[in-house]
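Person: I keep going back and forth on a fold encoding question. Show me how you would write down a chain together with its backbone fold. Please set it down just below, with no commentary around it:
Helper:
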Amino acid sequence: MTIPNPIKNIIKHLSFPLLKKVVGFALRNLTFRENLLQDALKDKEKGKHTFLDEIEPTAIAWNNFFNETKFEKIFELKSVIEENLDNLSREVIGRFLLQRFLHSLEGVVSFSQTCYRKPIEHFFPLDKAECERLNQLELTTSERYRFPICYVSNVEIANGFGMSYFTKEKQTILSGRDVIDGGGFVGDSAMAFTEFQPRNVYVFEPNPDMFPEIKKIITLNTNVLGDYVHKIIPVQKALGKTQGSMKFYSQGVYDCMAGADDGSTTIKRRNNLKEYEVPVVSIDDFVRKNSLDIGLIKLDVEGVESDVIEGAVETIKVHKPLLIISIYHNPKDFFEIKPKIESWNLGYRFLIRHLIPQHSTTDFCLLGYPQ
């Protein structure tokens, strides 16, 4: 297969040797869907991509990033977030960026639509001990909690949605203190956090269609939760930088992609969306108003994590909670949240982990703990 000139130029400017090897290997040895690749390359020259499926805002954000950002800048950003991280975190970063780059190259959204699985495994093999740990969790976890849908991962529950990456000593930071669970979805993470003995778990879920379901699911698990059935407290608000309101878009109950958007991206690409005006509160305001003692902040809020962190500065500085923050939704969160918190000089250490063993570009989280 002849490698097109634009691809040669891309490879030439890749300063990261391993990534250069992977892309070169993939281009030489894999059978591409020629027309799709050529279309993607032509569109890349124009600063845009042709998508197989343009419904996923995360994919759109990352494709735009690779279209608009010089590779030298990407590797500069990469080196900044890698500072003071362990080797596994660096591997996770490399794997994630490679997957997203290859998606961008071929102009696809879903990893299942790519043909890069083998070369990624070859050049970025999953850490064996970590893979074994996650697979063991998945194999040994009984279906302790009951859910009316199949969107919940047993391994994530067993993994404590990231809590298991903290040492036992650091896990005790949560004991007897409050949890801010941003992006409650079905209450799965909230229930997992109760196993670390918090005082209360405040579950923020702004989706008006989803919110009643959280209460139902908590009640459904009364036998398992015990007293915590009253200590998981759903809050029908969105988290943000300041108090106010925002537009929220959803396809209804169990819409895992529901979130804030100006409408210009999501509405054009998703069918039957409902538009709501939802209240917004900052973590700092909520904590002050309710006199909380925060031991954990978990955020999976579909790409507005950076704004939520801006509204939680006081809480993080005063309470020094554990942090579990999704950073895969967009480049801003991925590259900027860790350096931002580090700039506050609070003595936090960080890990970046993929919370599930499957090959995917979701569930990559920044985990922070005070020294």
The chain has a mean pLDDT of 78. The CA atoms of residues 169 and 175 lie 11 Å apart.
